[in-house]
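Retro notes - structure team

What went well: the batch runner handled both jobs without manual restarts.
What didn't: labels got mixed up in the shared folder, which is why I'm recording both outputs here explicitly, each with its sequence directly above its C-alpha cells.

Job 1
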Amino acid sequence: MEELRDMAGIISKYRLKKIEIINNSLPQSARTGKPSKKARQSRDSKAYHGLIDEGFTNDEEMAAYLGYKDTKGAFAIFKHRLSLKLQNGMFFIDVMLSWYYNAEYRCSRLRHLVFMLFLYGRRNAAVHFTNKMLAIAEEYNLAEQKLFCYKRLRAHFSYIGNDALYQKYSGLYNDTLEQMVMEDQAEDFMNRINVQYAPTIVRKPETAIEAIGYADETAGFLKKHDTPLLQYYEHKLRGFGHQINGEYEKSNGIWREWEKYLQTHPLFSGDKRLGEVAVYQMDNYTYMFQYDEAKKYAMTCMERFREDSTNRLIFYENYFLLAMRSGDYINAREIYKLATGNKRLLAMSATHQEKWRIFEAYLYFAEKGKGNKFDLEGMAKSIHVYKADKAGFNIAMLIVQISILIMTEPEPPIDKMDALRLYKKRYLKTDTSYRVNVFMDLLFALDKAGYTPAAMKETETVLLKKLKGKPMAHTENIEGLEVIPFEQLWRMIIENLQNIREVLSEIDF
C-alpha cells in the first residue's frame, strides 16, 4: 500500500494539469451518426489522419493540406504541439510483437517509474518497483535492464548499511556489466559486416573470413555468458559468413540450428526472428537454384513479417529476385506492386528506394514492355547512390539499359556499347566481376557482329561455356547484380532481336 500512497502523493502535487494526446477516432457524421473522414475534423485529427493516409514527406505538403499559407509561424507552432501529443501517445502503445520485446517495453516503463520515485525521495516505493522490474529483466536476461536494477539496489543497500545485500548486488552488477559489454561487442561485430554493404552490393570473399572470425570470438563470449543475444549474433555471423563464401548448405545448417534454439527458448523467439531465419534460407536455396524450396520459405516470411514493417520490405527485395531468377514474372509484378505501394518504402534509405527503380526496369524488359510504360532516361537520372557503386548495382543498371534499348530501339545502341567498354576497363578488374565481364564480352561480340546473332555463333558458344563454368555466386551478386541470371538474360536479348528481324522482314519498304 505504501507504494500506492507514494505515487498518489507525487501525482497530486506534481502532475501536469493537462496531458494532451491525439484522439485517433474519427468524428461522427451528422447524417449517419457513424465515424467518417468526411465529417468536420479538428486540425489535430486532420493532421493525424493525413499523416497516415497521405504520407506527407515534407512540411510544405502538410501545411498545404491543413490550409496554412507557409511553414513558418502558426504552422511551426502547430507542428511542435502535434509532436508533443504524439510523443505522449507513444507511452501508451500495445507492444506485443513478441514476449521478449514486450518485456523490454515493460522494463522501460518501470525504469521511468523507478527514476521518478527516487527523484522525489520515495525510496521504499522505488525499491519495490525496482524488484518488479528486476524479476522481468532476469527472466528474459535483459542485461541493460538488469544493470540498472542492480545499480539502484546496490546504492540503496549501501545507503541503509546492509553490507551483505550491498555485496550481493555489487557482484551481480559487475557480472552483468561484463555480459553487456560482450553482447555489445558481438552486436558491433555484426555492424562491422553490415556497414560494408550499405552503399554496395558487391561481396568480398575476405568478408566471409572476417564474419566467421567474429563468430568464433562470440562463441568465446558464450563460454562465460550463454545468453540468447550472444547465441543470436554467433549464429547470424557464422551463417552469413558461410553464405558469402558460397557454402549455402553450411549456412542453412547454421540457420536450422538457430531455429531449433528459438523453439527451445520461446521467450526470445517471435515472428521477427523466425522470419529472419526463413529469409536467409530462402536466399540460400535461391543461390542453389532450388527455387521450389526457396518459395516455401518465402511463404513463411509472408506470414511472419508485419505489412507495416521494414523487414517486410527488405524481404520483398529478396522475394522479387527469387521470382525474377526463377522466371516467375507474373509473381514478380505482384511483389513489385506490394513493395512500391507500401508507404513505409518512402521512409527507407535511398538505396532501398533505388533498388526498386532498377528492379522495375528489369521487370519491364522481362515482360517485353507489354501493357506498361517505362521512362528509361528518368530511371537513370533518379539513381544517385548506386551510381557510385561501380562494381555493383550500377552495372545492373547499365546492363538493363542496353537490354531495353536493343529491345525497343530500331538503331543499335553503339554509343552505349562504347561507354560500356570504357567502364569495364576502368572498374571491372577483380575476380568477383568474372561473370559480369563475360556477359559484357557477349554484348560486345553482338555489337561487333552488327546485332546479327548468327554471325557470332562461335564466340557465343565459347563465352556461354565460360558462364556455365562459373555459376551465379553469392560473392558476386548478393542483392541483384544478376536480377535475371546472365544466361537467361542473354537468351531473352537474342529472342528479342529475332522477333525484331521477323517484324522487319514482313514490312514492305
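Job 2
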Amino acid sequence: MKNPESLYKLIPMSNLYRFGQFVLDPCRRTLSRADSPVSVTPKAFDVLFFLAQNPNRLVTKEELLQAVWGDAFVEEGNLTQYISHLRKALGENSEDARLIVTINRKGYQFTAHVTVAEAVDTAKRATLRATATETSKTDAPSVKFRTKEKATKSPPPRLRLREWFALAALFSVIAAAFWLYWSYRPPVTLSATDTIVLADVKNETSDPVFDDALDTALRYEMAQTPYLNILGIDKVVGTLAQLKLPSTTRLTPEVARQICGKTNSKLVISQSIGDVGNGYRLQMRALDCGSGATLAKEQAEIGNRSEVVHELGVTAAHLRAKMREPADSLARFNQPLEKALSSSPEALQATTQGLKLSLAGEAEGALKLYQRAVELDPSLALAYLRMGATYLFLGNTELSVTSYTRAYQLRDRLTEKDRLGAEISYYSNVIGDWEKEYSSVLRFLEIFPRDVFGRTNLREAFVHLGQPARAADEAAEVARLRPSAYYFGSAIQSIRFASKFNEAKSWLAKADALKFDSLLIRRERLIVAFATGDRKNVEKILQEEERSSYREDFLREHALIEIQQGSFQSAERLRVQASGPASKAGNAGKWVISAALEDAEVGMDEQARRYESEAVGSPLARNDRIALAQALARSGRAAEAGKLADQISAERLEDTLVQHYFIPTIRAAVRLQQHDPAAAIEVLRGAAKYDLAFTGFDYLYPAYIRGLAYLELGDGRSAAAQFQKLIDNPGFSVRHVTGPLAWLQLGRAQKMMGDQAATRKSYETFLDLWKNADPDIPIYQQAKAEYAKLRK
C-alpha cells in the first residue's frame, strides 16, 4: 500500500528544486523564496513536491491523492484547501500569475520552469568558504608579513569558534528533524488485509473484574467495524503454541507484539486502566509491531465505575478515527457498548470467562458462566447467543432454541454485525428458514466480506439449499483462511458431498500433514476410502478405530458399509455391539429408526415394523421423527405416517426443508402405498430444487421416490433420469441403501425404454455390489430373478 513516504524513496534527497525565486529542499522539507523561508504545512509541502516533480503536465486529482495520501480516505475538498494554501504561500494573487493552474474537473498543472540541482551540504559549503578565504589570504601580498607565531596561534581560536557554531547548527537541524518527524509523521493507515492484535488490558486498579470485562469490551468494539480486521482468537491461541507459550498466557503488549510479528499483522492495540482519586484513567494505544513505538493514542478520565464500559467505547472510537477510519464508517458502526453489551463489568467478566472455558472444551462450565452473565444483566444478548451455541453443542436442542430466540428478540441492542449474526442463528437453528438465512448471510458478507463466521454460514446455506458444489468451494476457502481441524473436517465433508473424491483425498493428506484430527476427519477418511473402492484402506481404518475412543461411531459406520453391500445380518450384529451400556445417549433410537427405513426399502417390511414399534412412543428428536414417518410410509403404515407428517408440518411451518423436502417425500411415499403415482409426482414437484440438500436424509430421497413413481406410471425415461441423479452424486448416496438400489431401479427403467444392453449392465452393476448380500433379502431375490430372464 502506498503512503506519503513513497514520494521520497526514489528521489535523490540531495536535489534542490528551483522555480523562479523559489527553492524546494526535500531533504530539509523546506521552501524558501530569495533565501527567506516560506511557511507551508507538511501535507501542503508534499503536494507541492509532487507537482514540482511533474511540471507542465496534467496531474489528475486521483493521481495526486494517491501519491500524497496513499490508500487513506481523503475527501477532494481537503485537496482543494491545500492547493489554496499553496497559492497563498507562493504569492499568487491573480489567475494570470498562477504557478498552479486548475484544469476544470480533471486536476492541476504546475506551470513553472523547474530546474533540479544537487544541493551541497551546509557544513561542507562552510568549510569551502573558509578554505577559500584562507587561500586568498595566502595568495595576497600581506602573507609575507605573517610570522610563524601568528600562523600557529591566531587561527585555532577562530576555527574552534566556527566548529562550535557548526555543531550547534547541526544539533538544531537534527532536533528540528526529529520534531518534524514526530509531529508530522504519516498517520496510521490500514489496508483491507492488515490484521490487528488486541493485547489484554493492563489493570492497575484494585478491581480484578476489569481483567476480563475490558478485554471483551475492547474486542467487541473493534470488531463491530469492517474497517478493522482483528486477529481471531483461534489464530492467537495457535500462535501462542508456536511460541511455546500456554494458551492461557496473558497478552501483554510484548507478547502481543510477538504474535503480531509471527502472524504478519500490522499493529497491536493495548489498553490500561488505573485509579485516579475516586475515578479511573483509561489509556489506549496503537503500537508498531516491530519497534513498539506508539502510532496513535487516546485516554479518558472516568468519574465512576458504571461509566467505564461506555467510556471505553468512546475512547476506542476516537482511536479508530486516528487509524483513519472514514467518518461515515465511524458513524454507522458505533453502537454504544453499554447497550450492545452491558454496563455491568461483572456480567462481561462472566461472559469472557465462559468463552475461555468454551475454547478449552469445557462446555458445561462455560454454560454456567453464561447463565450467571444473564442473571446479572438479562439484556446481555451476546451471552444468549453463546448459550445457544453451547446448548446446541451439548445436544440440548430445546434450550438452544430458547437461547437463540432470546438473542433474536434482543438483536436491536447489538452491533450491526452481531444483529445479523443473531438473525442467521435464529433462521438456521430455530425456525429452519434457510432462504432467510441465506439472505442474511449475503447482507452480512456485503459488510464484512473477510469474516469467517459469514463464510461458514454461507457454506451452511448452500449445503441446505441443495448446492453442494458451491458449499464445497466456500468450505475450502474457510479452511484455507483459518486452518484448523474443525474447518478442515467441514471442508472435506463438503467436498465429499460434491462427489469430488480426489480433492477430498488431497485435503485429507493436508490434514495429516498438519496433524489435524477429529471424529469428522476420521469418518470422512473412511467414507472416501469406501466410495473410491479402496477396500484395503477401509479394513485398515476399521481395525485402527476398534481401539480408539470413537469405537462406537465406527461400529455404526461399519454397519452402514455392510448395508451398502446387502449384508444386513452383519450390520445388525455391529449395531448391537455399538449399543452397549456405554453407548452415547440418543444414538440407539436413531439407529433403530435407520434400520427400519433400510429394511423397508429392501422389502423386509415385517422386520421394519418391529423396529418402528420399538421407536414409536419414545422421545425423539425432530429429525428422528421425520425418519420414522418415512419408514412408516415405506413399510406400508401409511395412515400413521401421514398423521406424524401432519404433526411435524404444523410444528415447523417456516422450516424450508421440512416444508419442501421432508413432508413432500413422506407424503409422496404414502401416495405410492395408495397406488397413486401421479399424485406422488405432483407432491414432489416443488422438492426438486432441494434434491441435493444435506438434510439427514443425505441420499437424494425425493429423487428416489420420484423415480419409483415414474416406474409405476410406466415412464421409463423419466424414472431413469431420477435414478441417474443418485448414481451421478455418489457423495450423497454412499451411506444409504438407496445408493446401490438406484442401479437396480435404473435397470428396470432402461428395460421399459427397450435398451437391453444398458439394462443388463445396470443389473450386473447392482449384483456385483451385492455379491455378498444376504440371500433372503426380497429385493435381492427379485433382482436375481429379473436378471436371469434377461439372459434368456
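One thing worth noting from job 2: Residues 121-159, 176-186 have pLDDT under 50 and may be disordered.
We'll revisit the folder naming next retro.
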